[in-house]
Write a structure and sequence with these properties.
Blueprint: H1 2-35, E1 39-45, E2 50-58, E3 63-70, E4 76-83, E5 86-92, E6 98-104, E7 112-121, E8 130-140, E9 143-152, E10 155-165
Antiparallel strand pairs: 1-2, 1-10, 2-3, 3-4, 4-5, 5-6, 6-7, 7-8, 8-9, 9-10
């Protein structure tokens, strides 16, 4: 009987650990795909808007730092990391707010990662402009597409950037 009482907490701990490991493995694959962007990128958005994007792996490999800068615009920073079975991002917008978004790690081959709104800090009022979503589409190792969703006064607008790795 003492052996069973001792084994029950051990079995429970193993079950909890295996669920956590599975969740981390699922999000780890998607995060590794994001980390493969490490380096310098350039591209164009609508209206022939030029952007330069830099990806840097930081914090011991646990965070991907993105710096996006359009011509004659201040740079913006976005941080990506795992959180259990999902990916998280915080976008530090040049207008001063900080939306957080999450993506469920897709199963199988990762072609798209879809971040959706979780919450936001420093929003002046609910109708003020802010980012609400981001979809990464991985075309090949040197070409990606970002589709940002901007919300203002309850209306969404999409901005697309087609990016190419600098050689």
């Amino acid at each position: 009987m003492k052996r069973i009482i001792f084994l029950l907490p051990v079995i429970a701990l193993l079950a909890i650990s295996s669920n956590s490991i599975f969740a981390q493995n699922k999000s780890t694959a998607a995060f590794e795909k994001l980390k493969s962007l490490n380096g310098e990128w350039q591209g164009r958005g609508e209206g022939d808007r030029q952007v330069d994007v830099s990806y840097q792996i930081v914090s011991g490999g646990s965070v991907l730092l993105e710096t996006l800068q359009g011509t004659n615009e201040p740079p913006m920073v976005t941080l990506y990391h795992t959180d259990g079975d999902r990916l998280m991002m915080t976008h530090y917008c040049s207008i001063g707010n900080q939306p957080r978004m999450a993506a469920q790690a897709p199963a199988g081959e990762i072609k798209d990662i879809n971040f959706t709104f979780v919450d936001i800090t420093n929003l002046t009022n609910p109708s003020a402009g802010h980012m609400r979503g981001l979809v990464f589409t991985f075309q090949d190792k040197d070409h990606i597409r970002q589709e940002w969703t901007w919300r203002m006064d309850g209306k969404d607008e999409k901005t697309i950037f087609n990016l190419e790795r600098k050689k």
